[in-house]
Every structure is written in structure tokens, then in C-alpha cells.
Design goal:
- This protein has twelve helices and 19 strands.
- The chain has 352 residues and is α/β, with parallel strands linked by helices.
- The strands form four sheets. The chain has a seven-stranded parallel sheet.
- A hairpin with a 5-residue loop joins strand 12 and strand 13.
- Helix 1 crosses helix 3.
- The structure holds pyridoxal-5'-phosphate.
Length: 352
Amino acid sequence: MSDNRIEIPATVKLRLDDNALTANWRKLDEMSGSATAGAAIKADAYGLGAVEVLQRLQTAGCKDFYVANWQEARELAPYVDQSSNISVLNGIRAEDMPYAMTGVAKPVLNSMEQVRRWRETGRPCDVMIDSGMNRLGIAAADTKQFDWSGFDIDIVMSHLASADEDTTQNSDQLDQFLSSMPLVPGKRASLSNSAGIALGQAYHFDCTRPGLSLYGGKQRSELANVIQQVVFPQAQILQIRNLRTGDRVGYNAKYTAKRDHPIAILAMGYADGYLRGFSNTGMFVDDDQNELAVLGRVSMDLIAIDITAAPHLKESAWVTAKYDLPIASSQSGLSQYELITGLGNRYARYWV
Ligand SMILES: *Cc1c(COP(=O)(O)O)cnc(C)c1O
């Protein structure tokens, strides 16, 4: 048997909750009122695995999917239903044109240069209008005199910069979108990401584009009790140690034992996206939900946890990081987006 056919089981896993993902999409679709919810699955569906998320959400009834670039579109192409649409949010560079002509996805045209580039193709596209975020998108002024005849525009969209906050920027952007959107002859209009859906009916238009909340992110109180956790990072125990009072743990000795107690060393570290912000603040649980605090600094590939509450744990047992995104965000100082997109490729991802 050649070496690479001998299985080496992973030492970190991502448990991904199938029912929670589809329930979150259904909830966001329902909260979108008469608009239909799509799904942002860029960046490998925020780290969960874009193919698996696409397949599950298509089964649930989702039809509009958003990726960042054409490499991502190509990866999904074999799995896209006839009735589904893929939009490429980062638009169309000159060097994307050969692949884009295969018709697998539609570009979101983000500048007048991209509009002119796409014109001669006559193929479907979306158009992004800048309503005040100053990231991607066409300025309203540029659309005024433009002759859109010959274009097949599906979604005319814009993107909210601060939908997770109660700020006048939201209504400013809504007003800007309402005045510029009619200048571009699309079939549908779209403004809201996950947090925008919670801003109410005025923000819904024809379709919404949730990403983070599909995967368990809750950036507004309206989402707190309706969105379920989807991602559960798990690590195997490599070693059990028994600390004596005064023993120090990890780099720079950021933990010193004040009593004798057992600890476990986990096969997970900041290279797995469990960043050093969790040092002395993160929490794991065993299968009985006993809480096991992170002790000292998170290393690249290793973490120490206190197992006083679960002294039965042995080498090779598995524990699960507490990873409710708002809580983990405040513990670590990472955004809810960074917490899931950064999880990396050492995990064996499995759906339950
Ligand atoms: C990423 C993205 C979304 C999804 O945003 P969330 O905050 O993750 O819901 C929607 N629209 C655009 C243009 C995006 O870039």
C-alpha cells in the first residue's frame, strides 16, 4: 500500500449542523417578507465549505448565490441547479472574460469600465450601485446619461456599510439607493445583507443577500433568538497533565496554577483560526457540557485547558470549543466573520 492511501484521521474537526443552516436560511427568507433570500457563499461559504452549503440551500429552496470571484464560481459550477443563479460580487476583470463567457455565473458590474466590457457580450449580469460605502459600485451620477439598451440586467443592488448598527447611515443609503436604482433597468432590486434584513420591510426590495447569519452570526438583537449556531470546532486531547500549585503553562507563562489540578493539551491552535485573543478567555466543553477554560496563551498548534470539571477526560478524547459567535467575538476581539472564515484547512469538516 502506498503511503498516501493510509488514512490519517484529523486531530481537529468542524461539526457543521445541517438543520441549523437550513433553518437559518428559512428564517432569513421569512424575515425578508415578500422578498426572497439568497445566500452569500463567497470565501468557501465563510469557511464552512461552499459546495456543501450550496447543495443544502438549493434543497431548501434558495436560488440566488453570491461568490467573490470566478475561481469560486468555477468550483461550484458542477453543482448548480438549472434554476439557480450565481453572482460574482467582485465583478469582471479583463482577464476573467474568457471564463465568464462560459456562462456559469453572472458578473456584478461594479464600474462603468466593467459595464462597457460586458456590453458586447449581451449576457446576463447584475449591477452594483454605490450608495455611500465607497467600496465597489457605480456612482449614481455616472448612471444618469448612460444608455442601458442591450443589457440583460437581473439584480440592481447596493450594499449597506453599517446595518449592524442603529445609525443614520442606513437610511442615508436607503434614500440614495431609492433614487439611483430606477436609473438602471434591472429585473430585481436588492440592498440587504443579514443585518439589513432585520432593519425592516423598507430594506427588503425583491431579494436579500444574507451571509453571516446563515452560518450562525448574530449582529443585531432582532437576530439573537432566531439564528442558530452552525459551526462547532472540535479538538482531540493529546496529553493530560497534573499541575501543582505554582506551575506555569505555555509561552510567556500567562497562566500559573493557584492549586493542584489537571489540564488537557489540545491539538488545536492559532493556525486553526483559534487565535491568540482566546488566550485565558476561551472556553471548551466536554460531551456533558462541563466548561473547560483555556489556560495561558494559545500556541500555533496547541491549547491548554483546565479539566477540573471533567477529570474523567483521557488522551484521545474530543472536546468542543464554545463558539456562539457573539460571545466568542467578545472573548477574542475577533469579528464574527473572522471567527468562521479563519478556521483553516486542518479541520475535517463533517455535517450532522
Ligand atoms: C458579503 C456580502 C453579503 C453578505 O453579507 P453578510 O453581512 O455576511 O450577511 C451581501 N452582499 C454583499 C455585496 C457582500 O459582499
